[in-house]
Amino acid sequence: MDSSEKVILLVEDNPDDEALTLRALKKNNIMNEVVVARDGVEALDYLFGTGAHAGRDVTIQPQVVLLDLKLPKVDGLEVLRRIRADDRTRLQPVVVLTTSNEDSDIITSYKLGVNSYIRKPVDFAQFMEAVHHLGLYWLVLNISPPRLP
To answer: Model-level pTM?
Structure first.
């Protein structure tokens, strides 16, 4: 699988954070396709091929989901809960990328099976560094589980 096939699903409702994340990915030469979902319903529709994404080939899933927690319609923890509850997406790599530093959010995320929890740095240089490491690890070094039939 080459990098053009390694899609990133960015679930982010804040336009400024979306633009910042896309800029940081580009500045770090992470040229993977990024699909943006702006609320929890849109993210679930993409992952499960429903709603606006009805008919999408759900056997092809993102290399990694970057998931904000504070989302409209369906919050990030519920998105994570539904991802882990479905056999088709149970092993999907999910990284929480959020401004929340609440212990309860961190604990609940890990209890629900998140792969990593990253607090968004406020400083752009720190955010660039975080995205660099995130891209290097999840898109280059990490070996994802094989797709289940």
So the answer is: 0.90
Crossing angle of helices 124-135/15-27, nearest 10°? 60
| Sign of the dihedral through C-alpha 38, 52, 61, 115 | positive
Burial class of 29 by CB neighbour count within 10 A (0 to 12, 13 to 18, 19+): exposed
* Sign of torsion over alpha carbons 16, 21, 24, 26: negative
Q: State yes or no: pLDDT of 142 exceeds 90.
A: no
Structural domains of the chain, ranges and CATH numbers in brackets: 3-141 (3.40.50.2300)
Query: What's the CA gap between 42 and 11, in Å, rounded?
Result: 8
Per residue in 79-106, pLDDT (tens digit) is 999 999 999 999 999 999 988 889 999 9
What span, in angstroms and rounded, lies between the C-alpha atoms of 64 and 47? 11
Residue 84 CB coordination number (10 Å): 16
3 and 28 in contact (C-beta within 8 Å)? no
Tally of residues, the chain = 149
Identify the helix (H) or strand (E) that includes residue 111: helix 103-111
